[in-house]
Amino acid sequence: xxxxxxxxxxPIQAPTVTGRRGAxxxxxxxxxxxxxxxxxxxxxxxxxxVAILAPVIAPYDPHALQFDQMLQPSRAHxxxxxxxxxxxxxxxxxxxxxxxxxxxxxxxxxxxxxxxxGVSAAYMGGVPDHFLNLFTDFFLVLPTxxxxxxxxxxxxxxxxxxxIGVIVITGWSYGARQLRAQALSLxxxxxxxxxxxxGERSLYIIVFEILPNMTSLIVAIFFxxxxxxxxxxxxxxxxxxxDPNSLSWGTMLYWAQANGALLAGSPVWVxxxxxxxxxxxxxxxxxxxxxxxxxxxxxxxxxRRK
Length: 306
Description:
By secondary structure, this protein is mostly helical. The protein has 13 helices and no strands.
């Protein structure tokens, strides 16, 4: 005779394992559901297309000195000409390339330094954490603009790499502080303890266990650093610390100021690159709003049920 035992306990379910694509999926959903992020991505995508197709879209060679000086906007020259007879519209299109390169290169470099210093300090703890935290605080309290001017003037070489390096040196500390705080909250979690028990190396734990759980914050820091890079590069180039022979929105402002564009009756020479800088910075800021909401659910707007 078979005896059947009945218990009140629910069957034990196996824990669900979330794939590493979950972080990327949440980021993609956060972007598509946020109108500000979609608007920012649209503006950023437009600038990327312009930078790629600049040789096709531009009607003239941006360096050619073949026109009259200070011509007003017309059908032949949509934005007029510069004080040396160059087409402003062609310069604006080609200037998108270097401006985007500075923003993305400096943003990526500053984010990389922030991740290395911030996450390493939080994970190692002890004396290394104290030293790296003190090093970060030192850069946080330094006045940014005077430091950029001093470094840019001392290096003398006004190339693009030097300009990106100056922006990275002065723009990594704020992101490192945020990443350190987030990594400290993850340092004693169970999945990290399990990785240590398995004998995983510290580098493996940081790269494959900690960083995937900080994806939204890292991307948000990248766009914040890119926004800082756009404004910082334009400011440095405007005061003459960039390469004046290069072609970017900042150098366009530098030559417009040097040639007295406003007094000469050519305000478009100043307004066109200035508006592009503001639009690109606004695009990065709008995209950053979405990642702030992904990383902090309390910032998400409350949706009313119909």
